[in-house]
Amino acid sequence: MTASDGTEPPDMREYYAARAPEYDQVYAKPERQQDLRAIEAWLPGRFIGRRLIEIACGTGYWTRFLAPAASELLATDAAPQTLEIARRRVRSPSVQFVVADAYRLPTRAGAFSGAFAGFWLSHVPRQRLAAFLDDLHARLAPGARVVFLDNRFVAGSSTPISEEDAFGNTYQQRRLGDGSSHRVLKNFPSEAELTQAIGGAGIRLRHHAWQHYWALEYLVS
Predict the structure, then answer these.
(1) Is 4 a residue whose pLDDT tops 70?
(2) Residues 65-121: pLDDT tens digits?
(3) Is the pTM of the predicted complex or chain greater than 0.85?
(4) Which pLDDT value is given to residue 202?
(5) Which helix (H) or strand (E) holds 89?
(6) Residues linked to residue 184 through DSSP beta bridges, in sequence order
(7) C-alpha–C-alpha distance, residues 136 and 218, integer Å
(8) What are phi and psi of 46, to 5 degrees?
(9) Which of 213, 165, 215 is nearest to 185 (CA)?
(10) I need a surface site. Which of 13, 55, 115, 182 has the fewest CB within 10 A?
(11) Are 210 and 32 in contact (CB under 8 A)?
(12) 10-153+188-220 CATH choice from 3.40.50.150, 3.30.70.240, 3.40.50.620, 1.10.730.10
């Protein structure tokens, strides 16, 4: 799941391009299967009949569950390599895949009535989170439902944190199958931090937690 604004470090762009063929291995971890089945059953019902935009769809793992529920789905990602996998995985006339920057999302007539981002919010630098949310909300109709899904840090399952910067962003050192090592920004915000970040933009805010994952769900006012 990737998005580039043109200033993303080259190593990050190379990381996501190189990781595309092996990205879905993260969903094969045995200890996460119960959570994944629960989320796969829960998530589509949040977007029934909605005109949905998916941010950083990656290989389309979650797109395949969203497509049958949404009336229309625009799935975006900055990496053509992952989008090609997503296109092969999800073949539906209601789904359109577009290479797009998550910080400058496409605008559509009539606006979107739903937005979903799986495992993307944790890659947004803390100093850019407010601007990202403002841009997203500007593309949504009043009453649109937003769901962010992401990881909880679980020792023994999550990749260890290797460093923290001056803004409080945390980083992991990830190794790919080709042996290359990459420094990847990965934040693990608390429920309180998430609620504060949404501020007055969200009404009926709900936080969901599983052992390895969390989801934040709200309606845009």
Answers:
(1) no
(2) 999 999 999 999 988 999 999 999 999 999 999 999 999 999 887 789 999 999 999
(3) yes
(4) 67
(5) helix 80-89
(6) 172
(7) 13
(8) -75, -15
(9) 165
(10) 13
(11) no
(12) 3.40.50.150
